[in-house]
Amino acid sequence: MTQSARENADNCLETRIVIVGTGFAGLGMAIRLKEMGIEDFVIIERATDVGGTWRDNRYPGAACDVPSHLYSFSFEPNTEWSRVYPTQPELEAYLQNVADKWNLRPHIRFSHTLTAAHYQQDSGQWIINTSGGNFRSQFVICGNGGLAEPKLPDIPGVERFAGHHFHSATWDHNYSLAGKRVAVIGTGASAIQFVPKIADAPEQLSVYQRTPNWILPRKDRAYHRFEKWLFKRLPITRKLLRGKIYCQNEMRVLGMVLHPALMKLFRITASWNIRRQVADPTLRTLLTPTFPIGCKRILISNDWYPALQKPNVEVVGTGIKEITPNSIINKDGSEREVDCIIFGTGFYATENPIAAMIHGRDGRVLADVWADGEEAYLGSSVHGFPNFFFIVGPNVTLGHSSMVYMIETQIAAISRVLAAASEVSATAVEVREDVQQAYNQDLQTRLGGSVWATGCDSWYKHRSGKITQLWPGFTFSFRRRNRDFKKSDYLFSKSSVEAGT
Ligand code: NAP
Questions:
Q1: 480-489 contact pairs (CB < 8 A, 24+)
Q2: What PANTHER family does the annotation carry (predicted)?
Q3: Residues 192 and 255 grouped into a single domain
């Protein structure tokens, strides 16, 4: 046990703050707490090492679509990134180094999966149940990630499939695809990375596409030794590069949110990209989306279209009717026997399973409160759930730039709320309902005019149609909005125990 937790009579380890998760969000928050002089916190982590999404998603070819010099903590630059776009092993190693450098491991309880969290109205504390033990804390900060729970498709018969199967986020590296009949279901950001890497191995690879995506060229390359030397010796060069990438990405907001007509420029490039890489007109039609570019996440790849044209690879676009114990039957009646199915079918993004575990004031369950779609104030606080914060909660995801920037913004904002609560000796702090409502009305109005509302299905949207994932604007606007912290947006109170009532 670290000094940051004490066992109490209820068999709960007592600590001031429990952080959930050890990805960018959880580690970044822990570092901020240390900087504030707070050591009394515990990080619970369901896995056995740090890294979040970059520890879990180890499929062949896993990498980030945001350049490495922007997709990293501003306070922990890395001059050694090997490429423009960081690969999964590099990102995992980066996060491990950060955890070690800041001596965070003594705070982490590995193999502790969150099972429930209950707010105690009398004390203003939370009881947090995990697979490894219980905790009592004043604050809970949830950095569990918006894309953490792999989703299997709701295709009839999927549970009866008797062959080998796994999800892209739980890749089975012990299973050899060589000489097998393999099906990949899904053609999103994950599939377009792993399909080209595995395409040569199977005897037959059938890629089941429900909706084609717009794909732009991936301008990736290795950094030269001289560049790395320059980044190290002249830090201004690395900072300038980071600034350049940041500004270029922010420009995309002009088309995505402010003037969707500008997205035509991306469409021209994406259409050219298909034309130059896919010669067969039938395949080209099959791979060309019909929705406006940007409505779903724009993907980047140089090897996806070539992989789909290998002699052992086929794209099946007729729609799946049913999965049997050894085959996939399509809506056109055709059937393909398969040995293995790889699900590249995404995550529970809009219905974060963790919400069903969170019991707030008056026993309300977050999943019920969010039944018509998640919402929060600044993506972190929800009325009715005092002393509870999300990092990468509702409407914080980006369609255009680095989530690490948004995470740092939220960490700073949560720190301000924690400091304000300390300042007035409050035991509970909660966002005001009217503030949360006004914020979300404004968000939804802005989202209504964005490219994401132009008529496509995506994981950005709740099943009600409400866009619950994306921030509709520049990332610096989000930061400014968070910096304009007003104490009056929150209700500060003392618990009945503290107040002696
Ligand atoms: P995704 O983008 O949600 O893609 C899921 C795919 O599965 C889609 O093609 C979807 O088709 C298909 N699908 C889902 N249910 C289906 C069903 N019942 N029948 C047939 N097809 C079905 O998931 P992902 O590829 O794992 O990526 C998720 C997100 O993670 C990305 O958008 C991105 O934010 C992040 N990510 C980033 C990177 C990166 O930075 N390079 C890499 C991987 C993931 P529809 O399109 O028709 O729904």
A1: 481/378, 482/378, 482/409, 482/410, 482/412, 482/413, 483/412, 483/413, 485/413, 485/416, 485/417, 485/420, 487/420, 489/377, 489/431, 489/432, 489/435
A2: FAD_NAD(P)-BINDING DOMAIN-CONTAINING PROTEIN-RELATED, L-ORNITHINE N(5)-MONOOXYGENASE-RELATED
A3: yes
